[in-house]
Amino acid sequence: MANTASEVEAPDMQLALLHLAGPRLEAAMMGSLLLEQAHHEAIHGGATGSWDAHGPVNGTG
User: In this predicted model, what pLDDT tens digit does every residue of 7-53 receive, in sequence order?
Assistant: First the structure.
């Protein structure tokens, strides 16, 4: 998207294109972090301890 914006001649249009890309990029990055956390929990959740709203479960943590 940044490459496309740089090819547009009108500065206002460049800024508009970058504003459109920002939230999508942020959402993709957040989704990636959430997926990594879910994967970590699936793989290591039982071995390193689990947490609920009140803290460690089963005395681990």
Answer: 778 888 888 888 888 888 888 889 998 998 888 888 876 555 566 66
Is the dihedral angle over the CA atoms 10, 15, 19, 21 positive or is it negative? positive
User: pTM of the full predicted structure?
Assistant: 0.45
User: Using the 8-state DSSP alphabet, how is residue 1 labeled?
Assistant: -
- Contact indicator for 33, 25 with CB cutoff of 8 Å: no
Widest CA span of the chain, in angstroms?
62
Angstrom distance (rounded) from CA 61 to CA 55: 8
By the 8 A CB rule, do 17 and 9 touch?
A: no
